[in-house]
């Protein structure tokens, strides 16, 4: 067809497309920024017209700051949300910042434990302040849910004179051929409830002062943590358990190795009652640590025996020993150097064959520690890598059961006292741990709350709102030592008084008489069982003979353990497949 001179439909559409301008709509997400700019312009106009209006000047400053913030948000590259939502995007970070406080105060229930429930914290606060801790209108717990536990009471309760329950650590009968220099000659009468390991550096100076003064007033022990003995530990003279970690702080040579001379100088101080070798801790077992150089202040450096302003390193393992046998000889050496004070070790259970290797070393050398402290994976006062806090190490129940039953099975339990630590808050917590095999309990976060800790979970930031876990001199001034020392003493006293009432109600004379037979656990809506029927109890000497009738953990891992190595002897034909929870 001949062209008529008129544009075709396709040509017309093309012309229309080219001629129509592309309109990009103003993003609604920029509205807050646009309003700030508009407010800035308006205030600027008011200032120019009426410079005497102070409100216009205030608005000018406010909108100038907000507009400048918006420009910065659009240009920065770190946060995508601020580039897309200038100015108003900061609201997200504000809400995220205050979320823990809002959840704790307004949202969570009294029974939600993250990691401690409001009910648990309130109980500590009440007991620390000396306020009444009775609860009206009955229990708030669901007694029909699986996992609920209680202690059986007696129709003939006992009447005890006081609540100052104590145990003697060290000084137990030793074999006739034991080396006199390696025998504990200074046994320690310890409370069944003590302050767990928390170092100066992790805690503030005022927190250490208050804890130790409270321990002195209440007659219980204060574990130094691996940060060694600082000047603040010595002011009030409270009983100390000196913890020796892999960094050998307070007893190290310049190269970081163990120094017998420096150890002896500190260990023979009358204030030091026991020596505790730290193998691992529940918060981050198998993980070392580094205190950055800027945090190594003169006070911390003096306590630890390290240079000021240099990274302070805690290796993940000890250099003084590398086998279970060497470890037992190290225990004996420290006991001798300390002048015969109770000496033991603390650990969080990991590979069962390593623990069994330590026990075999006790059998082979005839050297036994005076005590063992079992740390549970649910413990932890400071900061630790999330994977370690959540997924490394055995919980306290499993660790305590294995340690207790192993020592019973090799006839060594009567020579070794067992302590434990991990989320011990109430008297029932103490009673339950004793039912599982502990002789005494330690608490860290409970005593932190007695000092005023509000579970802000900012321990690692240096901005602790209550001055408990900061080295900021202004922040820690908020912690008044005499007042908080009273609260530490009150919390300990009230908890032991509650324990006394539990022991009396059960018809017993001492918490050490509490066994798994006294604790009942609900396992379903229609069934409850004694704890003794839910956890396995090894008979005395049972591990000295054939293992055919023993729990799978012993049949599998005991043959793999060696006193000469922390490594397994062999994996065997079935591999390392056994669990170590001592379930029946």
Automatic annotation (TrEMBL):
<dbReference type="InterPro" id="IPR002932">
    <property type="entry name" value="Glu_synthdom"/>
</dbReference>
<keyword id="KW-0472">Membrane</keyword>
<dbReference type="InterPro" id="IPR027283">
    <property type="entry name" value="YerD"/>
</dbReference>
<protein>
    <submittedName>
        <fullName>Glutamate synthase [NADPH] large chain</fullName>
        <ecNumber>1.4.1.13</ecNumber>
    </submittedName>
</protein>
<dbReference type="GO" id="GO:0006537">
    <property type="term" value="P:glutamate biosynthetic process"/>
</dbReference>
<feature type="transmembrane region" description="Helical">
    <location>
        <begin position="30"/>
        <end position="48"/>
    </location>
</feature>
<dbReference type="Pfam" id="PF01645">
    <property type="entry name" value="Glu_synthase"/>
</dbReference>
<dbReference type="InterPro" id="IPR024188">
    <property type="entry name" value="GltB"/>
</dbReference>
<dbReference type="GO" id="GO:0004355">
    <property type="term" value="F:glutamate synthase (NADPH) activity"/>
</dbReference>
<keyword id="KW-0812">Transmembrane</keyword>
<keyword id="KW-1133">Transmembrane helix</keyword>
<feature type="transmembrane region" description="Helical">
    <location>
        <begin position="54"/>
        <end position="74"/>
    </location>
</feature>
<feature type="domain" description="Glutamate synthase">
    <location>
        <begin position="183"/>
        <end position="508"/>
    </location>
</feature>
<dbReference type="InterPro" id="IPR013785">
    <property type="entry name" value="Aldolase_TIM"/>
</dbReference>
<comment type="similarity">
    <text>Belongs to the glutamate synthase family.</text>
</comment>
<keyword id="KW-0560">Oxidoreductase</keyword>
């Amino acid at each position: 067809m001949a062209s008529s001179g008129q544009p075709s439909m396709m040509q017309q559409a093309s012309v229309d497309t080219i001629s129509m301008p592309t309109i990009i709509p103003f993003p609604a997400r920029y509205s807050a920024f646009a309003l700030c700019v508009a407010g800035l312009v308006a205030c600027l106009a008011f200032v120019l017209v009426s410079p005497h209006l102070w409100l216009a000047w205030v608005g000018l400053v406010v909108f100038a700051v907000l507009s400048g913030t918006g420009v910065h948000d659009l240009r920065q590259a770190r946060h995508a949300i601020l580039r897309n939502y200038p100015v108003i995007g900061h609201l997200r970070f504000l809400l995220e910042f205050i979320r823990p406080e809002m959840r704790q105060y307004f949202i969570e229930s009294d029974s939600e434990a993250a990691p401690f429930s409001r009910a648990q914290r309130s109980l500590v606060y009440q007991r620390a302040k000396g306020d009444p801790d009775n609860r009206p209108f009955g229990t708030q717990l669901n007694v029909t849910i699986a996992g609920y536990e209680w202690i059986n009471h007696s129709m003939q309760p006992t009447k005890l004179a006081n609540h100052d329950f104590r145990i003697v650590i060290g000084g137990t009968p030793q074999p006739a051929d034991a080396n006199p220099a390696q025998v504990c000659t200074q046994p320690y009468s310890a409370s069944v409830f003590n302050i767990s390991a928390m170092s100066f550096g992790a805690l503030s100076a005022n927190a250490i002062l208050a804890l130790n003064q409270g321990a002195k007033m209440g007659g219980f022990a204060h574990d130094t943590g691996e940060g060694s003995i600082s000047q603040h530990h010595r002011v009030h003279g409270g009983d100390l358990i000196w913890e020796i970690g892999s960094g050998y702080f307070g007893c190290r040579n310049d190269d970081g190795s163990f120094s017998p001379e420096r150890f002896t100088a500190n260990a023979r101080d009358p204030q030091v009652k026991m020596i505790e070798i730290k193998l691992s801790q529940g918060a981050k077992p198998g993980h070392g640590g580094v205190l950055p150089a800027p945090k190594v202040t003169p006070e911390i450096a003096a306590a630890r025996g390290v240079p000021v302003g240099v990274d302070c390193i805690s290796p993940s393992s000890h250099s003084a020993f590398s086998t279970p046998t060497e470890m037992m000889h190290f225990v004996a050496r420290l006991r001798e150097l300390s002048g015969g004070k109770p000496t033991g070790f603390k650990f969080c259970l990991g590979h069962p064959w390593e623990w069994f290797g330590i026990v075999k070393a006790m059998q082979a050398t005839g050297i036994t520690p005076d005590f063992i402290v079992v740390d549970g994976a649910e413990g932890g006062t400071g900061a630790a890598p999330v994977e370690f806090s959540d997924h490394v190490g055995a919980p306290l129940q499993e660790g305590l059961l294995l340690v207790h039953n192993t020592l019973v099975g090799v006839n060594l339990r009567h020579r070794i006292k067992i302590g434990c630590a991990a989320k011990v808050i109430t008297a029932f917590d103490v009673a339950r741990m004793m039912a599982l095999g502990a002789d005494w309990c330690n608490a860290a976060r409970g005593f932190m709350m007695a000092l005023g800790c509000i579970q802000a979970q900012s321990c690692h930031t240096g901005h602790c709102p209550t001055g408990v876990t900061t080295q900021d001199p202004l922040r820690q001034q908020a912690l008044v030592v005499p007042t908080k020392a009273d609260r530490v003493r009150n919390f300990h006293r009230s908890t032991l008084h509650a324990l006394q009432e539990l022991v009396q109600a059960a018809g017993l004379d001492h918490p050490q008489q509490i066994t798994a037979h006294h604790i009942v656990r609900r396992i379903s809506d229609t069934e409850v069982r004694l704890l003794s029927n839910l956890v396995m109890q090894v008979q005395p000497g049972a591990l000295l003979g054939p293992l055919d009738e023993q729990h799978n953990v012993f049949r599998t891992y005991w043959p793999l353990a060696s006193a000469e190595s922390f490594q397994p002897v062999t994996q065997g034909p079935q591999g390392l497949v056994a669990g170590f929870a001592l379930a029946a």
